Amino acid sequence: MWGLMGIRDLKLVLARLTLGPRKIDGGAEIRSEFDEAFYLERSPDVRQSSIDPLRHYLETGWKEGRDPAPWFSSTAYLQAYDDVRRAGANPFVHYITFGRGEGRSAGVRLAAEWSPGDDGSHPADAASGTANGCEVDRMVETIAPHFNVETYLAVNSDVAEEGIDPVRHYVTEGWREGRDPSPTFSTRYYLETNPDVRAEGLNPFWHFIVTGKEENRLPAEPGGYKAQFLKTLPSLEQTVDLWRSTDREFALIDRASLVAVLKRSIAPGFGRVIVSFTQDNYTEIVGGVQLCVSREEAAVAAAGHCYLALHPWQPLPRLAAPEDALELPVSLVLNGEFLGTSPIADVTAAIAEARRPDTVFTLVIHSLLGHAPEAVAKMARVLDPDDAWFWLHDNFSICPSYALQRNGITYCGAPAPTSQACGICVYGEERRQHLPRIRELFAEIDFTVVAPSQAEHALWTEKSGIRAARSIVLPHLSLDWSGVHPPIGHVCGAPVKVAFIGVASAIKGWPVFERLAETCAGLEGYEFYYFGVSQTDSLAVTARHVSVTGDEPTTMRDALMGEPIDLFLQWSSCPETFSFSTYEALAAGAAVVTHPGTGNVATIVRETGRGKVLENQERLLEFFTSGEARALAESNRRTARRGASFAFSRMTIDLIEGEGADGDPLLHKLLV
After folding, report:
1. Among 77, 262, 302, 454, whose Cα sits 20 to 30 Å from the Cα of 344?
2. What angle (nearest 5°) sits at the alpha carbon of residue 573, between those of residues 571 and 574?
3. Looking at the domain 496-648, which fold is it?
4. Same fold: 255-476 with 496-648
């Protein structure tokens, strides 16, 4: 008989037998699991009668949808398991007798539907040994081997400060608050993608461990932060709309006033006028390109020349439309002073009117973001510059996605504009219009392309498809360890201090650093820091606000030395054309940890031997958890006793009038 019925049918028969007259009390185990206080709180009719609460539940309560404990749902159990429902078995008895051992879901409720008792007690606070306490203990025991205690405490400082057991906190409260028990499990994602778990009020991590994993349910978003980013990715037009400002101030300077100001500036004694195209106001915005322009302007002033910088009044993540080329409003900064805003056609005409017969012009392109190449070409025809320079601070001349990031998230390598790989990107259609306009600009102006590193020069030469008149490599700065500098202060055996420097963005590798910090939070001997001006909310990372300006170029280096930092993680998701942060870290005596795709960063690490180039993120995690990172830090502490000083280039002025050690023009030595 039993062989024909099968083991599951046998269990159901046994479950029905527990409801017989001799077993109506449910047995000692059933009674120990039954939460009488909870049942009476939810069943005032039973409380007012003299009926034994357990007997009531076993006879009729479960059929009425009543629950025997806050952690068990009679209705959810029967809805989830059709075999139990068809057999007419008591769901609670079946779960205690067989279901728990089979990994079935209890329909856990815990705090969701429990109201405090008269004494203010809460089932989640029940002492071990009570019915609910036993169930919480069992859940804690199930979850504990898979729970990352160190990360939970590091990310949830309130739990650490209150001295609460982190696993028990997650079981009773944390999961309802969207907290994660492990860097590899997302509470919110699991509940969002498993409506049955959410509907039953189940603890998601417990469910995943007990049944979800075997059912091939995903613990977190496939693809991590990249997948989440792509879910909400706007179109390029939507991004442009977000950039457009409706309340931006328009400080108009009329043509006559502009001519008068320019005539005073382009006076006898000024040997040259440098007209520079930039992406924004370098006197107000802090950043790598802005510091380069600021340094160039100072060098121009020191050389006795005039510096006029033009940036779009309306910033855009693309080129300005061709039809807007002549009327495009541009803002002007003359010798470091903001003049106002005027249509670029009026600016071009004003320069032509103000120029002297002996005026020599130099045209410099630092960025074309928001500019119209057609307007630049027209100005060049009017200026008839003595020379023209095109700086490769980024790869905007190759693609409107200036970091060569497909959909702003993954390095693409600049495939052909007609390729499918380019077609699936939000920048794909724009790029097909973008490239011809850039190439036409190069066809009209005899540019010398300037790359800040050999790595960027090689990438641009291979991927741009643009024929420049000349191309050179001129680094923004070099490091000098020969001088006398303050001691760094590394202490052998002290915790290894790991830093992220600069803008905390995905493109710069912040998600990788944040995840590494959270994963390694429990590993003894590591401390993680952020240095920059971005707002960060990772509780596993200590933030230090540091802003670098042209007047204080060593601020970041000094801050890193003051900590002192052992390792700098540079994990950009695209090749870096230069990377000031890498030089700042090296100057502060830190070793650099990076991957092969970071362009000039990987090149510097290989050339100097000050750091490690790791293959991928898996290798990065192994590097830290295996102790290799600690070994690198200790080795670096023994050698990096003092910092280095910076030797900055003067940017374009070095190319115009710089000389090499032998007195020959510097430009001749830099030509590639």
Report:
1. 302
2. 115
3. Rossmann fold (3.40.50)
4. yes
- Cβ contact 19:56 at 8 Å: no
* Residue 293 in tokens: 């322009």
- Please report, for residues 8, 10, 20, 90, 316, the alpha-carbon distance to residue 5 in angstroms, rounded to integers and kept in the order given: 8, 7, 21, 19, 72
Instruction: Please say whether the beta carbons of 270 and 306 come within 8 A.
Output: yes
Q: What is the DSSP letter of 495?
A: P
Residue 271, phi then psi, degrees to nearest 5: -75, -25
- pTM above 0.70? no
Give the torsion through C-alpha atoms of 381, 383, 388, 390, to 10 deg: -80
Boundaries of every domain in the chain: 2-212, 255-476, 496-648
Q: What are the structure tokens assigned to 337, written together? A: 């002073």
d(CA 585, CA 513): 16
255-476 adopts what CATH topology?
Rossmann fold (3.40.50)
Average pLDDT, 10 consecutive residues per value, the chain (672 residues) = 37 40 57 88 83 90 84 81 84 87 64 36 33 70 87 79 90 89 86 85 88 84 63 74 70 91 80 93 89 94 93 93 89 94 94 89 96 96 94 96 87 90 90 95 95 95 90 92 63 86 90 88 86 85 88 89 94 94 94 96 94 94 91 86 83 80 49 54
> What does residue 235 show for φ and ψ, rounded to 5 degrees?
-70, 165
Is-contact 564 488, C-beta < 8 A?
yes
CA-CA-CA-CA torsion for 650, 654, 656, 660, nearest 10 degrees?
Answer: 170
Provide the CA 7 distance to its chain's centre, in angstroms. Answer: 52
CA geometry: angle 520, 522, 525, nearest 5 deg: 80
Contact 89, 82 (CB under 8 A): no
CA angle (454, 460, 465) in 5-degree steps: 145
* DSSP state letter for 252: B
Please state, in angstroms and as integers, the Cα–Cα distance from residue 562 to each residue in 20, 268, 500, 541, following that order.
76, 48, 15, 17
Cα atoms found within 13 Å of the Cα of residue 339, Cβ hemisphere only:
25
Among the listed residues 507, 490, 522, the one whose alpha carbon sits nearest the alpha carbon of residue 633: 490
